[in-house]
Records
---
Amino acid sequence: MKLRIGVIGTGAIGKEHINRITNKLAGGEIVAVTDVNQEAAQQVVADYSLNAKVYPDDDSLIAAENVDAVLVTSWGPAHESSVLKAIKANKYVFCEKPLATTAEGCMRIVNEEIKAGKRLVQVGFMRRYDSGYVQLKEALDNHVIGEPLMIHCAHRNPAVGENYTTDMAVVDTLVHEIDVLHWLVNDDYESVQVIYPKKSKNALPHLKDPQIVVVETKGGIVINAEIYVNCKYGYDIQCEIVGEDGIIKLPEPASISVRKDGKFSTDILMDWQRRFVDAYDVEIQDFIDSIQQKGEVSGPTAWDGYIAAVTTDACVKAQESGQKEPVALQEKPEFYQSFTTVQK
Ligand code: NAI
Ligand code: ISE
């Protein structure tokens, strides 16, 4: 029997996940949708020829008897409430980042999941499913370059809308590096500092862009992460890890090279949808399969969502203070100690 899934929020990524579950992946079907914009929800049902009911809100969708699992793909501030309701109803829930907009909100989810006594929550940190990052992880775990010492990385978007603010550079964008890097090196963060280089003429007046975030881990690794969201030329994700015995680098997305008109060139992707399409597919397939096969989810945990929130909070503080700010995590609950999160 297929996993019956309800989707809360039928915007950009909600539609993408609906499409992949309906047309690409195995074992799941969309049976329910809701959006504060009810017309948008109805439109999605029509566009994807879904055999799904449109619910007026998340309460009624989560309560529906034929909904086994929920995807939360609404705006960030609405995530916490929907996730808490899903856990209380004993339903599996995949939540796009952020798990909640505050560390306190993430802790409320962590505590509710612990009370439920089994893993119900997976956070949408899809980079852990990207084949390039998985290769980096395997190389690090197999000590191919010895101990990692430094990480240089960049997260570049071609452009952002006028609603994108300076804090979103860390909360919305860098959050993917924040999640994937501590997972890669199996270390916790100690401190963060934000440096503003010369501002790009392509950034709107209210936005500081680019930014450099310097992160130190408890084990002494220093990460310098560039965020540049008006780079114009493409969607470009870079990650180079310098170790005691060598260097490993995230592979570039595969693309043909062209020899033409006296040039040798390779395309650069322009958006995150295509850059991580395979990772999203594997991530959602893992959500479906883990529930079907083990009765529990197995991807990034609510605790990972909490780590991300504490770290982005510290980054926002560092944006304002210009100082090095501590990343103060609470002690990891026993419940999350036994879960190894995704290594496909
Ligand atoms: P969007 O604005 O295109 O869609 C959000 C939808 O949620 C809208 O249709 C809106 O009407 C609806 N909505 C808002 N509040 C709601 C509520 N309380 N109940 C039901 N529906 C509600 O936004 P987008 O780009 O789809 O982003 C959604 C979430 O996914 C965000 O949290 C974003 O950070 C995350 N995201 C994650 C990405 C990733 O790489 N993992 C990439 C893009 C977005
Ligand atoms: C967006 O929300 C994402 O999650 C993308 O992966 C990221 O590259 C972009 O900067 C964010 O706005």
Note: The CA atoms of residues 9 and 90 lie 20 Å apart.
---
Amino acid sequence: MKNLQTGHSLRIGVLGGGQLGLMMIQAAIDLDLRVEVMDPSEKAPCAKFTHRFITGDLNDAQSVYQFGKNLDIITIEIEHVSVEGLRKLEKSGVKVIPKPDHIALIQDKGLQKQFFEDNNIPTSDFILIEAGGNISSLGLPIVQKLRTGGYDGRGVQILKTTADIVEKGFPEACVLEKAVDIDKELGVIVARNSSGQTSIFPVVESVFDPKVNLVSSLIAPANINKNTAAKAQALALQVLEAMDFEGLMAVELFLDSDGDLLVNEVAPRTHNSGHHTIEANKTSQFSQHLRAVVGLPLGDVSLLHNAAGMINLLGAAGAYGTPVYEGLSEAQSIPGVHPHLYGKSEVKPYRKMGHVTVTGPDIDLVQKRLLKLRESLCVSGTKEK
Ligand code: ADP
């Protein structure tokens, strides 16, 4: 029997069946929530572990509607989904969290930047350019971002010279941003449930790898002073409140070389920058997301350890075929190490194959352990190209 007080037996549909969905399912088991998943690939990590798995186009309104129409709640693990399909589900009485309007805002990096500006949320200077517009109008260096369709570093590039503009400039509608002199990249995960209760995770610091345009590792709590950490948390909450957001979202920020904080972008869902929370915090981002979605009280998110870190396991350059996790068994002899493999059957260069969390008594030790992991771990494949 369904119990709206505890969430017990509620049917929750998740659009997207990747690793974020997989870890959501792990958290849902504890609450006996019935998670059902739709993903375009029958090989998606969630396929083997969900009550009902449907292959379908996440951007097709009818597929989204058909998948969700008999469910109690619909949520997402990726924001590239049909907002029209979600609006239709909402109209037919399915609870949709995050709200379709919020997903629509975040799908368009241009609307998102405009929202920050309109709500006095500090963000890097920017202009919006129509398809074929003049890319050199904000000077150089600039960061060019496609307004829609980019993901995980694709559709974002830095242009430093006029030659870069000519050779690499995207012709599509885009955001041009002043290149920030970044001291640190920070992340804050915030959540709000239907009663208006909010929760803010401790600030994390991401180490970004420009070669692959992805976050390579992460440290929690961020190695910044208390005042900056408090400001970053306050800013994340300001974004959540300005949007009147319900659910869980990840706010990415830059700390620039002048010590100022700028909001880069938000993701309306669980995020790579919160993977460590499974082992490192009293309530994980996945558990918190489900609590917010179901309308349960939010959990305590304080850290269980003085420090934690996370390293993404990306496919090596040139790696194809069945994944081979080199160095992983030895890594497990390091104290505080906890691997998460996503069960992807094929490796590709820079594909996210898993992550490893490290906890420890202080940041220095966690950083040393992360370094050791970075040197010893590699995801190769049975085929090479
Ligand atoms: P995605 O949505 O693909 O993750 P982001 O907007 O987060 O794209 O940008 C990816 C990375 O590019 C950021 O983590 C940061 O390292 C760099 N970047 C983005 N915007 C700027 C900027 N205005 N100035 C300097 N670097 C930036």
Note: The longest helix spans residues 226-243.
